[in-house]
Write the structure tokens for this entry.
Amino acid sequence: MLLMTPAAGDGSSDPTSSLLSTFLMMGAVILIFYFMMIRPQQKRQKEHAKMLGGVKKGDNVVTTSGIHGLVYDVDEKTVTLTVGNNLQIKFDKSAIASIDAK
């Protein structure tokens, strides 16, 4: 049976440097993941929350389901939209995807 042993000057026999390089690589992956995924998502959530806080009566909005309507009434958690002739629908504020420019 042939056993493979590391060469004397290979440098792979030091377990501390191997462990350190593993931790550095994991740290780099976590940092990249944070800056590419988590941070932009948090920024979008803050912008959406700011937009929902600014919804007022008379705004034209689009819901996440694609319904376009005019804001008739705004409560703390809900928004009532006028979507047709005397047709009003109540939605959660979180269902508003965007506010249309007038």
